Amino acid sequence: MPHSDPRPARPRDAHLSLYTELARRVQAEGLQRRRYGYYWTRFGANLAVFAGIWVGVAVLRDSWFQLLLAALLAVVSAQFGFLGHDAAHRQVFRSARWNEWSARVVSGALTGLSYGWWIHKHNRHHSGPNQVDRDPDIAPGVFALTPDIARGRRGAAAAFTRRQGWWFFLLLPLEGLNLHVQSARTLLGRAPVRLRAVEGAFLAVRLGGYLALLFVLLPPGKAAAFVAVQLGLFGILLGGAFAPNHLGMPLVPAGARPDFLRRQVLMSRNVSGGPLVNFFMGGLNLQIEHHLFPSMPRPGLAQARSLVRAYCAEHQITYTETNLAQAYAAIVRYLNTVGLRDRDPFHCPLLGLYR
User: Fold this and answer.
1) In the chain, domain spans
2) Which of 16, 139, 250, 265 is 20–30 Å from 346 (CA)?
3) Pairing mode of beta strands 270-271, 321-322
4) Exposure of 32 in the CB half-sphere (CA atoms within 13 A)
């Protein structure tokens, strides 16, 4: 008579094969194949517009139409940021080296961000999205993103935190400056950074050369206005693209160990809206699919969406998708509720089963 194990199967063990089956279906559809035409077209188009902007700056000189070029430069810089993100996730080339170097060059020389700083932070985020004490994106900062952080604040910081949701929109334009500062601090600090000198040179050319060129070609007032418009809109575009992905979604308690599929799906939010939203969010509006398949090229994410959504419905896993207005409303509610410090409605009750 065969021996039977009287111990009940743990819920986490029962779901170990869920992601494997989904990955098999995605692979069968060919959604992980490289999209060289898509990416070379994107790189080429953005480089052409980038060069055209600087030709326009040199031709217009003392004109307030320069501010239109500043806004366009912000859009192009954000698009370079998204391309750097894709390359860092090895979505662009088969070669890991080509992906790494393209991400380093695009991020540093064209966007003004440190690849070394970003990739270390972003990899930690992907391994534990919205998990307390693990995800650096919910660590203490200007905003209190978890109830425990809010409870520790006093005085003016506590007063700010109680209505931090409304401050979110006012401070969003500063996110571009913050990204540049964090990149520079990392490269000037003592923490180990691979190819620090190379990245430092890229940032010096992109940020220092950018400012020098503007103040040589334009009167000081117009040069300052150009920088303010470009930097503010750049912050809105990048911050506004990353914020809806996880803010307002359930928090994972420290030490919880949900299975991979639930870890990535339950804590992520997709944003609907068609080609325009997809362009301005750089494909990050398909956050669930991106977290499940980080190396999937951007065009494949849209094709994977219906497959992943149906699979989640089949296994009764909540799949969250809202429009952009609903996503931002959820962010404001979440930030203000965390700021009140007397409620904590954002821990996911399902995750207690997977500790």
Assistant:
1) 11-354
2) 16
3) parallel
4) 14
Q: What are phi and psi of 131, to 5 degrees?
A: -95, 125
Among residues 303, 246, 301, the alpha carbon closest in space to that of 91 is found at 301
pLDDT tens digits for 31-67? 999 999 999 999 999 999 999 999 999 999 999 999 9
Count of beta carbons in the 10 Å neighbourhood of residue 307:
16
What lies within 8 Å, CB to CB, of 285 at 6+ separation is 241, 244, 270, 271, 272, 273, 277, 278
Residues 6+ apart with CB under 8 A from 145: 137, 138, 139, 247, 335, 338
Crossing angle of the two packed helices 115-127 and 96-105, in degrees rounded to 10 = 120
pTM for the whole thing? Answer: 0.91
Q: Tell me the C-alpha distance between 142 and 137, whole Å.
A: 12
